[in-house]
Automatic annotation (TrEMBL):
Gene3D superfamilies: Glutaredoxin. This is SH3 domain-binding glutamic acid-rich-like protein 3. Belongs to the SH3BGR family. It comes from the Eukaryota. SUPFAM superfamilies: Thioredoxin-like (SSF52833). GO terms for cellular component: cytoplasm. The gene is LOC104957811. The lineage of its organism: Eukaryota, Metazoa, Chordata, Craniata, Vertebrata.
Length: 91
């Protein structure tokens, strides 16, 4: 199953935009197949992201592999720093 990155194209937060872009850039650079899912286009998608994260207040970006939640931006960065990105992404 492909890695899913839940993001929003409509955000007033520069911090969220930077985090989202960093994840997409790293995955692209490492040639990881992924699907970018914009939660701003459909509220059901946002609900799906929050359900997978098991957090009713989860904000993008969130990363999943199939229907299994991998983590948020901070967990993603930690995996990169520890050279455990593949384990984090469950690929």
């Amino acid at each position: 199953m492909p890695v899913k990155v839940f993001y929003t194209s409509v955000s007033g937060s520069i911090e969220i935009k930077k985090k989202q872009q960093k994840i997409l850039d790293v995955l692209s650079a490492k040639k990881v197949e992924f699907e970018a899912i914009d939660i701003s286009q459909d509220s059901n998608t946002k609900d799906e992201m929050r359900e997978m994260a098991n957090d009713p207040t989860a904000l993008p970006p969130q990363i999943c592999n199939g229907n299994e939640h991998c983590g948020n931006y901070e967990a993603f960065l930690e995996a990169i720093e520890n050279e455990q990105l593949e384990a984090f992404l469950k690929i």
